[in-house]
Amino acid sequence: NIAAGKTTVLNHIQSKYPNIEVKTEPIDHWTNVKGFNLLEALYTQSERWTFTFEFYALLCRVKDYQLASNNHNNNKIKCFERSLLSNKHVFIRHAYNEQSLNEVEYELLNQYFEYALTKIDYSQTAILFLDLIPEQCYERLIKRARDAEKIIDLKRLEKLHHYYDDFLKKIDICEVKRIDAAQPVEDVFKQVDCVLDELVQ
C-alpha cells in the first residue's frame, strides 16, 4: 500500500545486495510531464486525470520491465518498487469502482495491460508484499508529508488495502511472499533478507 515502507526496504536491499538492481517508481516523471504535476492532478482532479495518469503509469512500468529484461549485459536480479500487476488489480480497479474511470477508459487500460503482459515473462517473478494495516500506512503518510499526497485519506488507503488483499489471494501467475511491515524496521529487514537469500540462491 501507499506508505507501507517500500522506499526504506528498497534502500536496504540496494545497500546489502550488489547483485540486485533496484528500480524505484518514476515519481520524477509523474510530477513533471513538461512542467505539469500529473501525480498531484490525479489526486485533486481525479475524474479529469485518472485515465491519463494510469496510462502513463502503465507505460512507465512496462518500459522499465522491458529495459531490465533487454539488458543482457547485466545478470543482476531486478527488484521493482511496485508490481505491474498491481496497476490493474489494485489502482485501476479502485479508480473504476470510484467512478474516476468510465467504461471505455477502463476497457482501454485493461486491453493495454493484457497486451503488456504478453511482453513480460512472469515465470521467474516473485512479489514481496509489505503487509501493513491502513491506519499505520496513514500515520506514516502524514509523517512524511509529501505535497502530492496531502489529499489522500484513510478511506482511500482502506480501499486499496482491500484490493491488494483480494488480488494477492487470487494471484497464480507468480509467487507471493508477505512481509509483516508493522515490525520494527530491523525485523522487517531480517524477514526481507530471509526471503531474498532464498530467492537469489
Automatic annotation (TrEMBL):
Official protein name in the record: Deoxynucleoside kinase domain-containing protein
Active-site residues, record numbering mapped to chain: E81
SUPFAM superfamilies: P-loop containing nucleoside triphosphate hydrolases
Gene3D superfamilies: P-loop containing nucleotide triphosphate hydrolases
GO cellular component terms given for this protein: mitochondrion
Keywords tagged on the record: ATP-binding, Nucleotide-binding
UniProt binding sites for ATP: R140, L141, I142, K143, R144, D187, V188, F189
Organism annotation: Didymodactylos carnosus
Domain of life of the native organism: Eukaryota
InterPro entries per record: DCK/DGK, Deoxyribonucleoside_kinase, DNK_dom, P-loop_NTPase
Molecular functions (GO terms): ATP binding; deoxynucleoside kinase activity
Residues covered by the Deoxynucleoside kinase domain: 1-183
